[in-house]
Amino acid sequence: MKEAEYKAFYDRVGQSNGWDFSKLKVLTEGMQADIYEEVRQACKPSDLLLDIGTGGGEAVLALRDSALLLVGIDRSPGMIRTAKANLAKSGASNVRFVEMDAGQIDFPTQFFNLVTCRHAGFSARQVAKVLCQDGQFLTQQVAEGDKLNLKQAFGRGQSYGEPDGALLQRYKLELAEAGFSDIQVAEFDTAEYYRTSEDLIFLLKHTPIIPGFGQEKGDFEILRAFMEQNRTEKGIRTNAKRFRIRARMGLEPGGMRI
Question: What transmembrane ranges does the database entry give (predicted)?
């Protein structure tokens, strides 16, 4: 999926659904990545938090009692409209959503105590710019090996054919070059069982896992065969592969930023 196609797809999904998959009936086995639970534990009541690629704002709104001010940014107008609608329903007074590109974060230098980013691209240098001294950055990303049996069945997919671990290594290098230290990594490969075919179809229609799903001839026949081959008593089996990076804005021994 080309950049322009992905942006149009993401904006369309944002307007119709946000980034909310809470209604999917899916069983997971194994340790799951959840950076927002880590954020909840790391937050202080006086902290300012920035969430990059906030989608429909669901995660930020769930954290509203953990920090003084929470700001979610997303480059998609559709996502931000959904996020603002979710904000109005929540009644939260300490949350803001702003349409903004992660490649050009327009906030004061060293403004935030924590910056988060889940399943969205980011610029390590932009994150470093807005993080305060000793501030923390947490990101959770989709690894190349995610939904691998699905991608193999279709012969195409998000990051399909790319070396597993390439994105992780790239981000580690970029964070180090931007001045981050204490870069900690955790990887997760969780079994997922989708209860019904409708649950799996919803996932494929609202994510770029299989680009253009349903638009190419034979897609639903491939999916039907996949579900027959991977159906178990627990549901239709695939996997969720993620990695988490936790990094701190580096300080020299005297307290100066690196």
Answer: none
Give the CB-side neighbour count of residue 49, counting CA atoms within 13 A. 29
pLDDT at 108: 96
Task: Please give the mean pLDDT across all residues of the chain.
Answer: 89
Distance of CA 257 to the CA centre of its chain: 28
Strands 235-249 and 231-232 turn out to be antiparallel
pLDDT tens-digit series, residues 46-66: 999 999 999 999 999 999 999
**What is the distance between the alpha carbons of residues 229 and 251, in angstroms, rounded to a whole number?**
53
> What CATH number matches the domain at 3-248, 3.40.50.2300, 3.90.25.10, 3.40.120.10, 3.40.50.150?
3.40.50.150
Say if CB 244 and CB 140 are below 8 A apart: yes
Residue with tokens 């069945």: 153
Measured CA to CA, the distance from residue 254 to residue 219 in angstroms comes to: 59
> What is the domain partition of the chain in residue ranges?
3-248
Model confidence, pTM: 0.87
Instruction: Give the CA count within 13 Å in the CB-facing half-sphere of 147.
Output: 22
C-alpha–C-alpha distance, residues 54 and 119, integer Å: 9
Over residues 132-146, mean pLDDT: 95
Q: Name the more confident of 249 and 138.
A: 138
